[in-house]
Amino acid sequence: MNEAAFLKKxxxxxxxARSQENLLTRKQVEEGLFGLDxxxxxxxxxxxxxxxxxxxVVKGPVTKREAAGAQGTEPSGDYGAGLLKTPERGTLxxxxxxxxxxxxxxxxxxxxxxxxxxxxxxxxxxxxxxxGVLREDLIGEGNVALVLAAGALELCESAAxxxxxxxxxxxxxxxxxxxxxxxxxxxxxxxxxRVNELNDRAKELSEDLERLVTVEELAVETDMEPELxxxxxxxxxxxIEYIK
Length: 244
Fold this sequence. Notes:
Layout: H1 3-19, E1 23-25, H2 26-32, H3 40-52, E2 56-58, H4 64-70, H5 92-104, H6 109-128, H7 135-150, H8 159-182, H9 186-209, H10 215-222, H11 226-235
Parallel strand pairs: 1-2
C-alpha cells in the first residue's frame, strides 16, 4: 500500500469529519479509502484510529440529531490537539463565521488564516514526517502555503470551500517538498549536520556537568526546539549517548 496516498486519504477523511461535527459514515470511510490495497485488518485499524480521534463512524447517513450530539467533541491526545476547539481558534462554528467574514474582507486573510490553521499545519506535518524531511521544514512549507491561500480567496464562495482549498494547498506544499528533497542529498546532509551538532553539544555539556543531560537543557544550549531534538534523536535510533 502506498503510504503517502494512504496518509493523504486519512487527512481528507478527518477534514470531512470536521465539516460534519466529527461524524463519518461507513460508506464515506470506504469511499475515502477507495483505490488502496487495504485489508480488513488494516480497515479495522483505521476505524480504531478514528475513534481515538473522537470521530464517530455511523452505519447510515449522518442525521441532525447525531450531528448535534457530537458538537463540542474534541480530539484526544497530543496528536489531534486543538482540531475543533482551541483558545486561538474557538469552536468549529466560530471558525466558520470567521472564514465567512473573509469572503467580504479578504485583506485580513494573511493574518487570519495562519491563526486559524496553525494547529492543522502542525498536525499535517506529523502525518508526513519520516519521509526524509524534518517536521519543522514541513511546517515552514505549510505556513508558506497558508500565505498563498490567503491570496487565492477569490476562488472560494463559502467557508467550506476555503477550508478545502487551504488543506489541499498545505498538503500539496508538503508533498512537493518531500518529492523535491527525495531527489537530492541536501535534506540528508542538513539532517546529518544537525545530528552531528547535537551530538557535539551534548557531549560538551555532559562533560561540563559530569552527568547525562536532558532534552530541555540541550534546547537552551543549542537554541533548538525540544521536539526537534527528540526527532533528531529518533533519527539516530537513540544512539546519542550523552542524553538521558
